[in-house]
């Protein structure tokens, strides 16, 4: 090959590399701009956000505030975020205060329940047994339900063990396994029973929780004053009571034996009618009610972004389609 032809070929190859590099850069920049367009671009003042209807959540945007308790206004859920400097694995709040399940993942992981005041400042902290999973509090803030994994880390794990505790004004009422429970009128005495995912009614006595033995789950109605749990129906996990107290949302297996595959459903407590919702993806969460007609839940992204979760919304009557509500967020609580 002549020197001239060699130079021409090398020049063409160099030009091709440049073209490919520029094209790759432009694609990467476009993807970055698209991703960045969903990220919060400003920080809000905490008192401004808490002074109006808002949503608190665990921030899931990669950066210095990852995992920190945050809030946005309900009128602009994709808008500026207020951060409160408290790391949470799971959180819940209302007008009277909040709770945060914290995990210190050192050489030996330790967990704690952090109680917050109405401005989301820490009041006290107490140790938890196990890995944080679920939490809810009553409307007046006097009752708090916590669920932790004593062993295992997922409800798709067939051998997990949970510890579910209700506290009144900071005092533990004991592990729910110690309470009197019945299924279809017969005592539930199995040593392997588990409870998780509590939600409170407005009378400060009634609550709903998941009861389980092996792979069989029940929606159970509890009475704090009587220390009792009574089954209402099977195949229901992680219940959440609607603001008006007329409906309960939960996740169901729908007869699917595959671990980790659930669908959301809503039970009308007046008519006993169950409706499966339009979200068809695999979601493992205790949903939150946006209002009496829509629910919120967290869903991890796919692939390399699996560490990032977004909060989605879907109608509670089985119609419509899921819509992203807050990007890069998890564990929502709506405060009006």
What's the short story on this structure?
The protein has about 325 residues and is mostly beta strands.
Plain-language structure description:
- The protein has 336 residues and is mainly beta.
- The chain has two domains: 1-36; 44-335, Neuraminidase.
- The protein contains two helices and 26 strands.
- It has helices at residues 3-36, 46-50; strands at residues 54-59, 68-73, 82-87, 90-94, 97-105, 109-116, 122-128, 131-137, 143-151, 161-168, 171-175, 180-183, 186-187, 194-200, 206-213, 216-223, 228-234, 237-241, 247-252, 263-268, 273-276, 288-289, 294-300, 309-315, 323-326, 329-335.
- Strands 13-12-17-16-15-14 form a six-stranded mixed β-sheet, with no helix packed on it. A four-stranded antiparallel β-sheet has the order 3-2-1-26. A four-stranded antiparallel β-sheet has the order 4-5-6-7, with no helix packed on it.
- Strand 1 and strand 2 (68-73) form a beta hairpin.
- The protein is globular and about 55 Å long.
- The N and C termini lie far apart (79 Å).
- Residues 1-38 have low confidence and may be disordered.
CATH topology of the largest domain: Neuraminidase
Secondary structural class: mainly beta
Poorly predicted residue ranges: 1-38
- Hey, roughly how much beta strand do the residues contain? over 45%
Biggest beta sheet attributes: 6 strands, mixed
Task: Give the overall silhouette.
Answer: globular
Count of helices?
Answer: 2
Distance between the termini: 79 Å
How many domains would you count in the coordinates? 2
What would CATH call the homologous superfamily of the largest domain? TolB, C-terminal domain
CATH architecture of the largest domain: 6 Propeller
Radius of gyration: 24 Å
Mean pLDDT: 89
Query: Approximately how much helix is present in the residues?
Result: 10-25%
- The CATH class of the largest domain is Mainly Beta
Number of strands: 26
In order across it, which strands form the biggest sheet? Answer: 13-12-17-16-15-14
Element pattern in H and E: HHEEEEEEEEEEEEEEEEEEEEEEEEEE
């Amino acid at each position: 090959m002549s020197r001239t032809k060699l130079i021409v070929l090398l020049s063409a190859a160099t030009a091709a590399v440049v073209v490919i590099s520029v094209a790759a850069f432009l694609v990467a920049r476009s993807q970055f701009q698209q991703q960045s367009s969903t990220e919060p671009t400003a920080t809000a003042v905490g008192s401004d956000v808490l002074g109006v209807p808002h949503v608190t959540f665990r921030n899931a945007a990669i950066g210095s505030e990852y995992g920190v308790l945050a809030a946005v206004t309900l009128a602009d859920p994709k808008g500026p975020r207020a951060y409160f400097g408290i790391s949470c694995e799971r959180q819940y709040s209302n007008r009277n205060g909040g709770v945060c399940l914290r995990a210190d993942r050192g050489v030996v992981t330790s967990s704690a329940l952090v109680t917050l005041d109405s401005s989301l400042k820490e009041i006290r902290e107490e140790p938890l047994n196990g890995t944080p999973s679920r939490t809810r509090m009553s409307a007046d803030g006097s009752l708090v339900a916590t669920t932790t994994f004593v062993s295992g880390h997922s409800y798709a794990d067939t051998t997990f063990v949970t510890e579910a505790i209700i506290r009144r004004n900071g005092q533990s009422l004991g592990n729910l396994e110690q309470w009197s429970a019945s299924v279809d009128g017969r005592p539930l005495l199995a040593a392997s029973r588990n409870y998780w995912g509590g939600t409170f009614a407005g009378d400060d006595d009634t609550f709903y929780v998941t009861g389980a033995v092996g792979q069989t789950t029940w929606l159970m109605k509890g009475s704090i004053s009587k220390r009792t749990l009574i089954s209402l129906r099977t195949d229901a996990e992680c219940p959440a009571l609607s603001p008006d107290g007329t409906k309960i949302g939960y996740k169901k297996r729908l007869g699917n034996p595959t671990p980790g595959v659930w669908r959301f459903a809503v039970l009308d407590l007046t008519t006993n009618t169950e409706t499966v919702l339009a979200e068809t993806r695999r979601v493992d969460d205790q949903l939150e009610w946006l209002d009496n007609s829509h629910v919120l839940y967290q869903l991890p992204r796919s692939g390399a972004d699996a560490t990032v979760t977004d909060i989605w919304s879907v109608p509670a009557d089985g119609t419509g389609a899921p819509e992203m509500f807050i990007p890069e967020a998890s564990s929502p609580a709506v405060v009006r």
